[in-house]
Amino acid sequence: MFTAVYLANNINTDWRITFHYFNIAMAVMIATIFYQYLFTLINEVNDKREFLFILGIEFFLIILGLMLGYYVGIYFCIAAYIIGLILPIFLWEKFKSERVNFPHLVERVSLIVIIAFGEVIVNLANYFNSKTPLMYAAFLLLVLMFASYVLLSDKIINHHQISRGFVLMYSHIAIVISVLLMTVDTLYLNNKNVDHKFLYGLIIGTVALYYFSLIVNQVYSKKVCQFKKIEAITLLTIFIIGALILWLVKNSNFVGYDLLINMKSDLFLSFSNEKQKFFKLTLL
């Protein structure tokens, strides 16, 4: 907690200054986690060695980057974070699925998403006034996105299963990124100087990333709620149609109409098939 507060108080718009504060904070957090695993007993169902290996490489590269300075060290620090993110995928067979408390994992990643949505609302709060009616439409869009998340990544997931949870963890990284990108999208709607091609391309990409990440989590769903091929094709078709319409009217001044089309696509993606499945599930 102290490290997080330290980092928050030292973030600067000049990355050359933030570079040291950020990586010092990350090094401290990684070292803390490393020592937690270091003093854990090793047994046949323990994946301690894999965690120590990954954390050790990441810590070493960050420290090396800090010692070399910004202009050279930044590449070592970037490599450290990429390795920390990707290396578990190559070592996934060495991780023990029985060591994962899957219900707890679902709860933790869900809380991160809730925090991300909360940050979005806080960032948009200053724009809710009579001069910016689009913000109300943007808020409705966020409500639909959150409702989609509750249905697809909370209600219909089988919480009581034995799994490493890799898909769940990595998909939630993309979900959080897309939620934060939606903040940028909605704020740019009020900026008349933003290129419409860039803005609507960003909106389409953000929505695509968000719903793709949700659909990927279907591997953890209860059997009665799993997607069929025809349902997946239907959702994809609806999204493509909505994206094409949004792109065709990108040069129009009716920005509210554009956003409404985008929200309509979200509505269909969120509830067209999953609503029926969810109601069916609640009756079982």
TrEMBL record:
Domain of life: Bacteria
Pfam families: LtrA
Keywords: Membrane, Transmembrane, Transmembrane helix
Transmembrane region(s): 20-39, 51-67, 73-93, 105-128, 134-152, 164-183, 198-220, 232-249
PANTHER family to which the protein is assigned, alphabetical: BLL5714 PROTEIN
Protein name according to UniProt: Low temperature requirement protein A
Native organism: Lactobacillus johnsonii
Source species taxonomy: Bacteria, Bacillati, Bacillota, Bacilli, Lactobacillales
